[in-house]
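Session log. Operator J.P. requested a structure for one protein chain; no other inputs attached. Running the standard single-chain path with token output.
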Amino acid sequence: MTMSIGGLVSGMDTASLISQLIQAEAAPQAALKTRLSLAEAAASAYRSVNSRFDALRTAAEAVLKPETWTAVKATSTATNVAASATAGAPTGSLTFDVTNTATTHSIVSGGNWTATTDLYGMTSPIEVRATDGTVKGTITVGGDGTLADAVTAINASEFGLGATAVKGSDGKYRLQVTAKTTGAAAGFDLGTAGTFAVSTQGLDAKLTIGSGTTAYDVVSSTNTFADVMSGVTITVSKPETAVTVQVAADPGAAGKAMQSLVDAANRALSGIKANTDPKGGTTSTLKGDSALRALSGRVLDAVSFAVGADGSPATIGLQLNKDGTIAFDAAKFTAALADQPALAQRLGAGGAAGPGADGISGNADDVVPGVAQRLLDIATTASDTTTGSLVLLAKGRDSQAEDIQDKIEAWDLRLVKRREILTRQFTAMETALSSLQQQSSWLAGQIASLPSYS
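Structure written below.
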């Protein structure tokens, strides 16, 4: 007779006993799971810090762009005239009148229809002409030749026209056709002379510069004028008189870029501190990590060390705080940029600062990296997707975690096998006990059946 495990014969809770034995034997696996958790947390922490250094790299690249230091700002004295300037546009001003804005040419049919399903009834194919009478081509009205068919044909034509059947207050439909672009050159006419009347005359936008006999006009088929002033775009929306557009240097652009750089550097430093702080508790996953602490020191050195012969970055408002963060004085930076723009740019970004170590001008060592270039080099070394130190550290922990996971899975198989062995052993024990119990009962019965003699 075979007994299923459960301690029915022995009286022991053999299932619980086996679970306890397995749990005891699984202690090494439990330690591996703890190590796996730590490895995964470390990889995540390295990637978190890496994302901050990648942001630092982006901020440094923005500071190093030439247009950051040559930014200009265009302003207009009229609310109906907008102006924008590209980096490097010459400073200066221009005063002008907005004589008129660009309009779209539109015509309307002389005849009308009671319904759009009425026959078009005009010349077909429809002749398309320029405003000077030159024939551009024709449009064939297909379908049943209705007004709706004429609208469809005009809209589908190659002449850049938009048509619609408009219902008037008298209940009748008129055919309104409008050019899809503004300006005088987009003017047109349809049909034979007198078939359509001009609803809106297409005009170019016009700026009048100067006055009297020296005045001259600048026209545009749209309400946007490009390069009337070099590098400046002017957009008009309403006629105006005596409008002045001025282009001036915009030091605020470089200031914003430097502030973003400092903010990114401080976020990178705070990420390192949060993960390496010995007193950070469970949130400090990389306590005492020497690689990260060294990286933090390099960031601080990049901001505090002198830039060649140009001196300290403090000249442009960059210095260290006592708590290990970076301070940026925007007002001091703006003043330095206004007073000595070339020096401010060399300190902030870098550039030629005279003969290098070899004492000869024109060589590679003449270029001294500024704060942004230093930080870019550090961030790139740390966060490069292939060779970055933080990327490699995270991948190293990933490999460690994979190895530990393999060992955990091997332990799973080992423990399953061990449970099977223990189950068989305890089952055999219960079976043996059951057999002995049956033999004992049989012997007792036999003894009881023997005759008694008095």
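Operator note: Residues 106-200 form one domain.
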